[in-house]
Write a structure and sequence with these properties.
There is one protein chain. The protein has a domain at 9-56. It has three helices and two strands. The protein has helices spanning 14-25, 34-37, 40-56; strands spanning 8-9, 12-13. The chain has a two-stranded antiparallel sheet with strand order 1-2. Helix 1 crosses helix 3.
Length: 75
């Protein structure tokens, strides 16, 4: 039996997470004027295009658990 959550985290596919991460990074790039020139929908469109191109080029994406700092037991 296959795991229905395989390849999905919080209801998103790995590619959807990658699109979000690329779109999030775009206004933080050190390109003069880029932050103000790209509304959210344009950033998502660019990010989707980047991810699709990487998939066409043979890239495969996977997420790994992020380990926090500390014990996770609170104070």
């Amino acid at each position: 039996m296959t795991d229905p959550a395989h390849g999905r985290v919080a209801g998103w596919t790995v590619e959807e997470h990658l699109v979000f991460d690329v779109a999030f990074a775009l206004p933080r790039t050190p390109v003069k004027g880029l932050r103000r020139s790209l509304p959210d929908d344009e950033r998502r469109t660019i990010a989707k295009s980047v991810v699709e191109h990487l998939k066409i080029c043979g890239w495969h994406f996977q997420m790994r658990p992020i380990e926090g700092h500390g014990t996770g037991k609170g104070a």
